[in-house]
TrEMBL record:
Keyword Signal: yes
Ranges for region Disordered: 34-73
Basic and acidic residues composition bias: residue spans: 48-62
Signal peptide (from-to): 1-29
The keyword Signal is annotated on this UniProt entry: yes
Pfam families, sorted: BNR_4 (PF15892)
Protein keywords: Signal
Protein name: Uncharacterized protein
Length: 494
């Protein structure tokens, strides 16, 4: 019995025949650049929704044939301007490390002499003023956190690094001061202490103030039992301190915070249930608003009267995987629509680490890998005694991040962008000065321009550092249009 001919070759032959017929039709219609008549000239019917109400005149047709292509506007580019601000250090978890008021950026650090310093810098003119607001000892955990108050006043919080042993023979307190006048850091109120804390003997560390409107400031810190703790300040009044979440027994959750959409009064909080050096860690996120904690889908999971919650009450953004390892939250932001964005690292204490991004889309968490943080522990140890170089989210655009990758034994602060809203990431440029070891970036916005701040120098221990704070301002300019199809430069391995 004779077998039937195979289907695939018949389909290919039919497609080839149809293709040749199409080529002949296109050529006869003049669509291949020849002089053939157009459809309208050939008397072919034009669909009603494609017709002009007024016929095209011969003069119009002639003018169209001579019309030049419209000029292509020049593509905007960014010029990076870098300035050294002063000697000092900071940690990952005391934030905001920088804010802006009017034409100036305000930031702060802890010096090798143990002084808490605040700087006011005009990055356009280069005019800079630095003042000391307290002394807490030489420890990179002791950097100040800043928040803007009505009238352009600046509120600063700072504390010594406290725990089971530190500070030695000192009662741990958190201090705060406010400028007397707006836009002026020369005069401050007397030093006050935060009068509330969660139960425990482990003091205060990592202040995180967030303005929530109505003259109120949400202030979070690591409290008396090493758990994320917060209180709300309004004027001279403080609410009772409350622990937010608790981790597994004996573990200390680490949290970062960020304001929500302007005017919303929301605070975003993302955290791990433990220090990744001591336990396997996941990443969770919550939103705080008017006394309640919610998941991103709006579900209420806790109120100030029923705290602390188990760490697992939050949105599970990253679940520990053996292949990826332990996580460490690096930065939190709002996408401009009230949704949480978080960046974190995975691979803690392995021979490599990677940076990841996650954002709430309105219905689910979208997670994507950004770039390796480093690929060799020997390189990291040459760069400094830190868990990772760090990564920050652009406050104006969650599709832009600023990782500090370890390459060749040095930290390099870079700008990475996502062309598809967080699905994939490409390297845009290097920001930190060549030949320097730079890490722990943060970012603020001044006059519509993003300012990226970071440390450069050597860090060997919490109390052994020789670093300075640098600021790179990204100024929009007009530059040449890249050739079509030009792809961003791929990052070097690692």
């Amino acid at each position: 019995m004779r077998s039937a001919p195979p289907v695939a070759p018949l389909r290919r032959a039919a497609a080839l025949t149809a293709g040749l017929a199409t080529v002949a039709l296109v050529a006869s219609a003049g669509l291949d650049g020849g002089a053939g008549p157009t459809s309208a000239a050939a008397g072919q019917r034009v669909p009603a929704d494609c017709r002009r109400t007024v016929p095209i005149t011969p003069e119009e047709r002639k003018g169209r044939s001579r019309q030049a292509l419209p000029p292509v506007p020049a593509a905007p580019t960014l010029e990076a301007r870098t300035m050294r601000l002063g000697d000092g250090a900071w940690s990952y978890f005391g934030d905001p490390r920088a804010v802006s008021i009017g034409p100036n950026v305000y930031t702060g650090w802890i010096t090798r002499g143990g002084r808490v310093q605040v700087a006011k810098v005009n990055l356009t003119t280069g005019v800079r003023r630095v003042v000391s607001v307290g002394r807490t000892g030489r420890d990179d955990h002791n950097n100040p956190a800043l928040v803007v108050r009505p009238g352009g006043k600046l509120l600063v919080f700072f504390s010594p690094h406290s725990g089971r042993e530190r500070p030695f023979h000192v009662v741990s307190r958190m201090y705060y001061r406010e400028t007397i006048r707006g836009h002026d850091i020369r005069r401050w109120t007397r030093t006050r202490t935060v009068p509330v804390n969660a139960r425990g003997e482990l003091g205060y560390t990592y202040p995180n103030p967030v303005s929530i409107g109505g003259g109120r400031t949400f202030v979070a810190w690591r409290g008396g039992c090493w758990r994320p703790t917060f209180a709300i300040r309004k004027g001279s009044h403080w609410s009772p301190a409350r622990e937010i979440v608790r981790g597994p027994k004996g573990q200390r959750p680490y949290a970062k915070y960020a304001p929500g959409k302007p005017g919303s009064g929301v605070v975003h909080a993302c955290y791990t249930e433990a220090h990744p050096a001591q336990a396997r860690t996941n990443v969770y996120c919550l939103n705080f608003h008017e006394g309640t904690f919610r998941r991103s889908d709006g579900r209420v999971v806790g109120s100030v009267r029923r705290l602390p919650m188990p760490a697992s009450a939050g949105d599970l953004v990253y679940r520990y995987e053996q292949a990826l390892g332990r996580a460490w939250v690096m930065d939190v932001s709002d996408d401009g629509n009230g949704n949480t964005v978080v960046v974190y690292s995975v691979g803690f204490n392995r021979n490599w680490q990677r940076f990841y991004s996650a954002r709430w889309t309105g219905s689910a968490w979208q997670v994507s890998r950004i770039t390796p943080a480093y690929s060799d522990n020997r390189q990291r140890f040459r760069a400094g005694a830190f868990e990772t170089g760090g990564i920050a989210i652009d406050p104006q655009d969650p599709d832009v991040v600023y990782p500090a990758r370890i390459v060749g034994g040095r930290g390099i602060v870079e700008r990475w962008t996502s062309p598809d809203h967080g699905l994939t990431w490409v390297r845009d440029r290097r920001l930190s000065p060549g030949g320097r070891n730079c890490f722990r970036p943060t970012a603020t916005v001044q006059g519509g321009r993003t300012v990226v701040l970071y440390l450069c120098g050597t860090l060997r221990y919490w109390t052994r550092f020789d670093t300075a704070v640098y600021a790179t301002t990204l100024v929009p300019t007009v530059g040449p249009v890249p050739s079509p199809g030009t792809a961003p430069v791929a990052p070097p391995a690692g």
